[in-house]
Amino acid sequence: MADADAAVPPVVVPSSAPPPAPPGGAPPKVTHHGRVAAPVASSNEDTEELPEFEPFGAPGPRGFPSLAEYLDISKVDMMKNRAEINHQQHHTDRFNTNFLIVRRGQEFQVKITFNRPYDADKDKFAVEFGIGPSPQFSKRTYMPVFPTPERQSPWAGRVVVAAGPEVTMGITPTADAIVGRYRLYVAVVTPYGIRRTCTDVSRDLYILYNPWVKEDVVFLEDEEERDECVLNESGVIYHGTWDDIAERNWNFGQFDFGVLDACLYVMDRAGMPIVNRGDPVKMARIASAMLNSRDDDGVLVGSWSGDYSYGVAPTSWTGSTDILLSYYRTRKPVGYAQCWVYAAVFNSFLRCLGIPARVVTNFYSAHDNDGNLKTDIILDENGRIDRKNTRDSIWNYHCWNECFMARADLPTGFGGWQAVDATPQETSDGMFRCGPASVRAIKHGELCFPFDAAFVFAEVNSDVVFHSRKRDGTMEVVKVKKDHVGRLILTKATGSYDSRDITELYKFPEGSVEERTVLEKGEVYGCARDQSTLPEADVELRLPALEVAVGDDFELCLEAVSRSGESRTVDAYITGSVVYYTGVTSADFLFKTPTLELEANQSVKELWQVPARSYMKKLVEQANLHFIATGKVKETGQIITAMKVVALHMPKLSIKVSGLNKVNELMVATVDFTNPFSLVLEHVYVRVEGAGVLSPVFKYYGHAPHQQGVQHTLPLRRGGVPHDPPRPPEEPQDLPPGRPLPQDRGHCWIDQWREDLS
């Protein structure tokens, strides 16, 4: 090694270069010099102003003559009132903004007032649009629009009305125009040069994707579905278990003041080149990385620890507005998120920019399996689960997004709904992101198509494989459950608050010929299944469905059903665990070892009473109880299993609204909560928000005694949300000393119960 090191030539620093930084000193500043002539334009906030006067040549000895006799611009009306034609026709009238917002591929109008009547034969002018630093026509970041058909640019222009000095211009951006914030100029040609309107931010406008226009790649033909997936601000996110589904209401807030700027800032923060922002595939892929903070200081910090002392608990969020505005204001990631928060905020981002999007929930979602189709559970020789060696987990549910777009990079037929996921699980091309992956490609096993189709395919198609681990460490497959993972995939129904089953969009029916063909095709692309061929057991274990409220005692039933003509004896083990919704075990609270004697073709049941005190002090957030029953049939040596997840039902809030449901008419919302537990709840917070009527507000209550409640009354007004960003709530005067604000900590009543029991 010494000889090899000596053979390396020493580094020679040219005398013209600065000396290297001393050890421990600051590293040299990284610049674009020597690599490119100018930095890549990647910030929509940085706008380089076009010159107010651009001469055709050098001025004479006395400078340029007076230009007063030539056409000049007196006023530019962006026609940005929400009741005017632009916002109405472009479906942007719901945006709470002071700027014009339009959609690409569709004409909008601008009214220009000159200093004298406009003469189309003599006067020449153009409406110019620039986006980002150093706008260039070749990059499509600078686009002039002319009023005459003789001279046209890619963006079409025409004179709609010319009445004296007032000219109304119709402007149609291309259907693939860059999405973002533009600055508008009016340029008039004089014999000596071009003069433009003075810089005025009130003439800025936003151009978004347009799912109403066929030429746009995000076009969605179904009108009801388009309205749901672009314009609806209120959503439902499903969670719980596949046979006991719960709902979370969410305010996407894509039209709230400041949210559009926040979404564009997310792209700036990612360093996404301006020229790529008209491509929804690139936009969705970069956003799936930027919505989490794992490798790029993105929007949300994920946490499943249960300790949210430095942020807001994931279960406390009710909408996306606070999250996006906080990130935009502070330039720092916001804590905390779990999968449904990532999906909900991502949904707001996509809908805000005009990409049709929806949140989907996959019940029993396989994770951390590196793209294979096996989730392994290890049993000991007697059939008891081996916690130490069981590493894989199945999430009770997992939320991601679908966005609608054509895919010119894929074969015909694989456009439409695309799966995208911002929850940081596995890296894709070096970053924590997932998608967009064609849902049709996932269903048909075309896993070579970009992006990350194999990962989503595994989430909905994995087998649960039970292994028996012998004393020498060898393992034998004893049971394979092929229908457990991807049991049900839901999204909100179009035009209602009901659920819609979209499982058939992701997979063929279990056991069908098509499913077997798809799984064989998946193996070609590396998604290997377990090929064990096991004889079907003649005894089955069952755990019936349970509906349990938090704090309730309940009865657990294990049923063994024999289909044999002979008697059978089953040595069974049943374990009850408190688990996170990710399937990770927190603590065991139940362990039973019954021996079940079955006569031929009969069934037996074993019942146990489970008191609340056995599990309550071990609960974690999103309380879930996981029961795994395993058994070994003495006569045949076969292993039989059953699994059941019980999502404990939380107490409910009630909300009543009184008053007239009319624009600018006062209404009153009353929030009620009654404490159903036998203890006093301490440090109770109420958080309320409503799309279009109420920005997020907090109310702190010291305590809520048993069978007593808290009530909070709020005035609200439809259409009355101010054109100002929401301010953080002031500190309540009755907070106990040292108690953090509700925006700093999401306090869970489970903590109080745990403290009481201890």
Summary?
The chain is of the alpha+beta class. 15% of the residues lie in helices and 34% in strands.
Quaternary structure type: single chain
Helix/strand-derived category reads alpha+beta
Amino-to-carboxy terminus distance = 61 Å
Percent of residues in helices comes to 10-25%
| CATH topology-level fold name of the largest domain | Coagulation Factor XIII, Chain A, domain 2
| Proportion of residues in extended strands | 25-35%
As for the number of domains, it is 4
How would you explain this protein's 3D organization?
This protein is α+β, with helices and mostly antiparallel strands and 758 residues long. The chain folds into four domains: 156 residues, Immunoglobulin-like (Sandwich), CATH 2.60.40.10; 302 residues, Coagulation Factor XIII, Chain A, domain 2 (Alpha-Beta Complex); 109 residues, Immunoglobulins (Immunoglobulin-like, Sandwich); 104 residues, Immunoglobulins (Immunoglobulin-like). The protein has 13 helices and 39 strands. The strands form eleven sheets. Strands 1, 3, 5, 6, 9, 10 and 11 form a seven-stranded mixed β-sheet that branches. Strands 22-19-18-16-25-26 form a six-stranded antiparallel β-sheet, sandwiched between helices. Helix 4 crosses helix 5 and helix 4 crosses helix 6. The longest helix is centred in the middle third of the chain and has 15 residues. It is elongated, with a radius of gyration of 31 Å. The N terminus and C terminus are likely disordered. Keywords: Acyltransferase, Calcium, Metal-binding, Transferase. InterPro entries: Ig-like_fold (IPR013783), Ig_E-set (IPR014756), Papain-like_cys_pep_sf (IPR038765), Transglutaminase (IPR050779), Transglutaminase-like (IPR002931), Transglutaminase-like_sf (IPR036985), Transglutaminase_animal (IPR023608), Transglutaminase_C (IPR008958).
